[in-house]
Design brief:
Blueprint lengths: L6 H4 L10 H18 L6 E2 L24 H4 L11 E6 L2 E12 L11 E3 L2 E8 L4 E8 L2 E6 L12 E16 L4 E20 L1 H5 L7 E23 L2 E8 L2 E8 L1 E3 L3 H6 L7 E8 L2 E9 L4 E10 L6 E4 L10 E3 L5 E13 L2 E10 L17 E11 L4 E11 L5 E4 L6 E21 L1
Length: about 450
């Protein structure tokens, strides 16, 4: 078979690089530090784009492709398909274009400008060939996050002006090949999360003075969470495989004393009871199940698909606002629903050293317009992707991929409290552009 990283290609004899195991881990540790210092996501919270060649297939084949070291995270059982130690490093800048179009707003204001912008991101993965049946792996990447920053005077300023939820994670994994057609893999996930939320406070209405300047509420905290990953890979025949990956939920508890700044006399008195108390923002990163298939139609052509589920109904609280002069709590529960994912993709080796990927994916919306808020403006997501990989000798593969994510209109129809007001509109631009550059080294 000529498809990238297929078992027949992997079994060819390759020249060793001369790096011993200690040196590799030193290099990998340094690179992990680099990844953790720059990993940040924006836009749509749960993302499949992890700085890997999967960007070129819109994640189609996520749990079954198992062609490189990124399988240490996407399905650790797939590590048994790699007959050499391998490292994958990915650099993935992304551009978020999120512009709100206001239909109506109780207190006026602008559209907020582009709440997105450029975000650096990437991923690092390593698989160590311990024995023919046992493999060890480690993944460093961020798969969950949000980053939005609106203009201070925009129409939804009493809902949010800035919302950032950044996560970085490390996942060590182990895999075992039970027999010729069945492999299993698992590992813990250690996740660090940082939350920063800001919103304006409507002093003017509270004080009955239209010239009274806005106050501000801010909440900022970080926490460590713990989860796990489990994968199964089934290979009923050469060139055909099925994979299942289960990611557990991860709980993050943000408990910060909300900073209430520049309050007028009325709100200072009303909020005296909650001032100085901790804001409880319990957030659950949803558990996820992904089922994938991969099949080689010919030596040069393969097709792949996904079906997935995410448990968004357990998401929790994230919004921090002051909605009325009778406010006794500063947080709001989300009325989210579980989401479903499908993806289709193909890979075509049009020359011996060149592999072309194309993919499409769809994810349903976790929330409707009546519950959607501008701090988490999630909607259905449609992905279109393509990518190229080039085998530069037996031990090096270079890759480049592009993906366009259409995040939907994210229509908002919020009936807020007397200090928030009503907000209605949608996002005239709501999209993410992913650019991925990857390097695969085999040892």
């Amino acid at each position: 078979m000529l498809l990238a990283s297929g078992r027949s290609r992997q079994r060819k004899k390759r020249e060793k690089t001369g790096l011993n195991l200690c040196s590799r881990f030193l290099v990998i540790s340094a690179l992990i530090g680099l990844v953790l210092s720059t990993s940040a996501w924006a836009g749509g919270l749960a993302l499949y784009e992890l700085g890997t060649p999967d960007v070129g297939t819109a994640a189609a084949g996520w749990s079954a492709r198992a062609q490189d070291a990124s399988t240490a995270f996407t399905n650790p059982a797939g590590m048994t398909r790699l007959d050499q130690s391998q490292m994958l490093a990915g650099v993935q800048p992304l551009y978020v274009n999120a512009k709100f179009d206001t239909d109506s707003s109780t207190f006026g204001g602008g559209d907020g400008g582009n709440a997105g912008g450029w975000v650096p991101a990437g991923g690092l993965y390593y698989v160590h060939d311990l024995t023919p049946k046992w493999k060890l792996g480690v993944a460093a990447a961020s798969y969950f996050g949000l980053g939005l920053d609106y203009n201070d005077n925009w129409a939804g300023r009493y809902y949010v002006t800035e919302a950032q939820l950044l996560t970085v994670g490390v996942t060590p994994t182990v895999a075992y090949q039970i027999n010729s057609w069945l492999s299993i893999g698992a590992g813990p996930t250690f996740l660090y999360g940082s939350l920063d939320q800001k919103a304006a406070i409507n002093n003017a209405v509270a004080e009955g003075d239209p010239n009274f300047p806005d106050g501000r509420i801010e909440a900022e905290d970080d926490d460590f969470g713990f989860g796990g990953i489990l994968g199964v890979l089934v290979e009923p025949g050469e060139g055909t495989r099925f994979g299942i990956t289960y990611l557990t939920e991860v709980e993050l508890e943000f408990k910060d004393v909300a900073q209430l700044k520049n309050l007028g006399p009325t709100l200072s008195a009303v909020l005296a009871g909650v001032r100085g108390t901790k804001v409880d923002l319990d957030l659950t990163i949803p558990q996820m199940v992904m089922v994938s298939g991969y099949h080689e139609l010919t030596e040069n052509l393969a097709v792949m698909a996904n079906f997935g589920w995410q448990d968004w109904s357990e998401f929790g609280k994230t919004q921090v606002t002051v909605s009325s002069t009778t406010t006794t709590r500063l947080t709001q529960n989300r009325n989210f629903e579980d989401t479903w994912h499908i993806a289709l993709g193909t890979q075509y080796r049009f020359l011996e050293n060149w592999l072309w990927s194309v993919g499409f994916a769809y994810d349903s919306s976790p929330v409707d317009k009546d519950d959607r808020t501008p701090d988490v403006p999630l909607d259905r997501q449609i992905r279109y992707a393509t990518g190229l990989q080039y085998d530069w000798g037996a031990n090096v593969t270079l890759g480049a991929a592009y993906e366009y994510l259409d995040a939907g209109d994210a229509k908002i129809d919020q009936q807020g409290g007397p200090l928030q007001g009503d907000l209605e509109g949608d996002y005239k631009s709501n999209e993410i552009h992913f650019i991925n550059l990857s390097l695969i080294l085999r040892f």
